[in-house]
Design brief:
By secondary structure, the protein is of the alpha+beta class. It contains 5 helices and 12 strands.
């Protein structure tokens, strides 16, 4: 009888001390689930493949894109946003995400003329562009729940002045910090974008 109790106790102990492979497997599954959840709903890393956002972003810069803000509030003028291709871009066989700067908000009238961008008849003081735009565009009025986006490298950017507006539902998130290269580590647009003069 005593021997039988001892054997039962040993079996319980063995069951309580799970196989280390099972423990490792559980840990890996939890870590993957957390990583996927964070990437899907909170933040993700992206890199810059082109020069369309120079000088703000250089080719191969790595950024953190946060995905929470636009569930709570709307984008603001000056935000650097990542978005899925619009229908117009998909028709042209673009399938990768784009990164551009929000210039026109819903209801805004945007005009590009004489190397300047005007929003609602006021010149936008842009300290972040590489060169003044050498094209004319508009005037156009941004539809409800859509945004007009331009690259900071105005003359080398495939953006809204070519293919139209970005619907809010296409937005993935807002670029907030550069994490690579180390010598350029830091928040984007740390000082006010549109200083009053």
């Amino acid at each position: 009888m005593a021997g039988s109790l001892n054997q039962d106790n040993k079996k319980e102990k063995i069951q309580q001390e799970e196989n280390p492979w099972i423990e490792a497997g559980k840990t890996i599954v939890i870590a993957v689930a957390l990583a996927v959840g964070i990437r899907t709903f909170v933040a993700e890393q992206r890199y810059i493949p082109s020069s369309s956002m120079e000088p703000t972003l250089q080719i191969n810069d790595h950024l953190i894109i946060e995905k929470v803000t636009y569930r709570i509030k709307n984008p603001e003028r000056g935000d650097v946003v990542v978005f899925r291709p619009t229908e117009a871009l998909i028709e042209q066989d673009f399938h990768e995400a784009f990164i551009k700067r929000v210039i026109g908000l819903p209801g805004d009238t945007v005009l590009v003329k004489n190397g300047k961008v005007f929003v609602n008849n006021e010149e936008l003081k842009e300290k972040y562009i590489l060169d003044e735009p050498d094209y004319e565009y508009g005037p156009v009025t941004v539809p409800t729940n859509q945004y007009l986006v331009l690259g900071d490298n105005r003359n080398n950017s495939y953006d809204s002045h070519y293919w139209g507006f970005v619907p809010k539902e296409k937005l993935i998130g807002r670029a907030i910090v550069r994490v690579w290269p180390i010598n350029r580590l830091g928040a984007l647009d740390e000082s006010p974008l549109y200083p009053e003069e």
